[in-house]
Amino acid sequence: MRVGNLKVKMQLLCGDEIAFGPGKADLLEAIDREGSISGAGRALGMSYRRAWLLVDAMRRCWSEPLVDTLAGGGKERGARVTEHGRAVLRAYRALEGEVAELAIGSVLIEGVRDTPLPLT
Amino acid sequence: MRVGNLKVKMQLLCGDEIAFGPGKADLLEAIDREGSISGAGRALGMSYRRAWLLVDAMRRCWSEPLVDTLAGGGKERGARVTEHGRAVLRAYRALEGEVAELAIGSVLIEGVRDTPLPLT
């Protein structure tokens, strides 16, 4: 997430895996819109394999599913974000918003040039 | 910065450069303790070149210096964190602390396993 010149990245860890972060938040939103993992991947310019790996990491990292998939005949039939998935997404976006507000109020934003001086 | 299973990375950008972030915050603290860029790099297990590049990026990104260096005879004589550098560092650490408090109060932290299920 970017606010002015401040970039904030929040990742929720599960051992060495990332249970949730910016990429998975975007993917959940895209699955919600597109109704499938493949459609969501396409909408985000992400390979099906990459999108599937992110969904699988969420499945392995959370005690309750964030995404329900409907498999059939070796082909994906569609996917939907569960209520729990929606709640996690809301909490993540809310925390991002709160962090953004803090950042805007911080003196840290001031005193930084728009572009760096050239290398010497 | 890590709070429980949440990892938060805050970077202050200046064009394509990073004006301030976790590495530069640690480096300023180390320069303050060690009194030189080389000593700070050693204390952080960082090459002199890497430490110098971080200090140079700060010099090019901020309108006011965060570090004063005392050069002499081709050799570094020492470095110190300026008042402005201290103020930026304080603001950065304060913002980290506030973000940590928000995260602790968020429902996001719950429901994540300690370790992921194995790959299938």
Considering the chains and any ligands shown, give keywords for the structure.
homodimer, 120 residues, alpha+beta, Arc Repressor Mutant, subunit A, three-stranded antiparallel beta sheet, two-stranded antiparallel sheet, 4 helices, 5 strands, 47% helix
The poorly predicted ranges of chain A are none
Described by the principal axes of the CA atoms, the overall outline of chain A is elongated
- The CATH superfamily of chain A is known as Winged helix-like DNA-binding domain superfamily/Winged helix DNA-binding domain
Structural class of chain A: alpha+beta
Question: What is the N-to-C succession of helices and strands of chain A?
Answer: EEEHHHEEH
How would you write the strand order of the largest sheet of chain A? 1-2-3
Q: CATH first level of chain A: which class?
A: Mainly Alpha
Largest sheet of chain A: 3 strands, antiparallel
Give the amount of beta strand of chain A, in percent: 15-25%
CATH topology of chain A: Arc Repressor Mutant, subunit A
Q: Taking all residues together, what is the mean pLDDT of chain A?
A: 90
Number of strands of chain A: 5
| Cα end-to-end separation of chain A | 32 Å
Helix content of chain A: 40-55%
Summed up, the helix count of chain A is 4
Name given to the CATH architecture of chain A: Orthogonal Bundle
Number of structurally distinct domains of chain A: 1
The Cα radius of gyration of chain A reads 18 Å
